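Hi,

I'm pasting everything inline rather than attaching a file, because the server keeps stripping attachments. The sequence lines come first, and each chain or strand is labelled.
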Amino acid sequence: MESLDLLLICVSAFVAVFCLLAVLALVMRIIIFVFPQKEAAADAAMIAAIALTVSALYPGTSITKVEEIK
Amino acid sequence: MENFLELLQRSGFANLSWGNWVMFAVGGVLIFLAITKHYEPLLLIPIGFGTILANLPLAEMGSYGNGIMALIYQQGIKTELLPPIIFLGVGVLTDFRPLLGRPLTFLLGAAAQFGIFVAALGAAYLLDFDFKEAACIGIIGGADGPTSIFLTSQLAPHLLGPVAVAAYSYMSLVPIIQPPIMRLLTSTRERAIDMPQARPVSKTAVILFPIVTGILASLAIPSSAPLIGMLMFGNLLRECGVTERLRKTAGGSLIDIVTIFLGLTVGATMDSEHFLTHRTLLILVLGAVAFSFSTAGGVIFAKTINLFLREGKKINPCIGAAGVSAVPMAARVVQKFVSDSTDGRVNPLMPAMGPNVAGVIGSAVAAGVFLTLLGG
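And the predicted assembly:
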């Protein structure tokens, strides 16, 4: 009977850990959805450097968009 | 001459037992491992020297006596003071972004607590430890020293020495224990799964995380609040960006001071009378069992999750092994193992950090549940 008690305690504890972390995962998913990471503004100096390099290589070309792909 | 003889009789030399010598050797081995192998040196050095101090006859330097160590033990460990302060520092030093960027990995941190329960049941069913002792032995599988000390000081203080030594020893043996289990449970193809970068997390989400987690976890399992609450407070100090001085203190001087007291006092619980029993050996064996099953639990659960994920979204099952706390060593071990297995093509350090830090929360919650159900 005693052993059965410990078995129940262990099962309860494992389920509690799982449920709590699952709830935290869900809540954080919602928070991240509600407060998404804003796109960082492009670095003006970097855009100028890219534009300068490209126009030197391909005269007359203009840069309209710079996108970083991770 | 008579006085001299009396002085000799009252000296420690005259009262040394073989048990003291054995414990000097144990303390020496811990110090040796810390210095030469760099196994958790910040803890094993104080624990090793505390062990030596506790075994000096008539010196009253043991945690169970009446001297200075007993004072720190009574006021710092029995009162649950020191482990939560360590957690405060851990919170400052932990970056939860890898976890927040991939919330699914919260579940891996839960699955990797499996060994706690296997070892607890083994200790009670097979080896005749009582429930409280079994729970303290099981918690070694959480691979979290402060949590093990926190729980054991409440439920089975007489086992504090062996449990703490087992917890910290196995934490430092992660690079030896985990790779064979990962190799056994994963295929070459699974190890080669390259996970995409986690989504970036906003500053607001990072600040809300410790607040929300602190509230939810403490409401669900109030007895885990000293650990989770302090962990999350420390993390808030780190992330809020306006408490630089507090962050530096909690993550630097404070955690160092408390580590010294905690390590020395835990070491000083290891006097020969309490440590040199067959039960210590059993605890060390059960600790290894707990650790191995926790590792396996994390990996197997990651494989199970993959059954439900479409191609391109699957996770590398090895990161499940990092769900045992041992931050950041378990994540580094996973990264090295996967990198070695794929000739350096796959390096899942950041993906492994997610379950790794989730494991800290998971083991603290497990300790809280044990304390709630067995502490009364």
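Chain A touches chain B at residues 2-3, 5-7, 9-14, 16-18, 20-29, 31-32, 35-38, 70 (CB under 8 Å).

If the labels don't parse on your end, tell me and I'll reformat.
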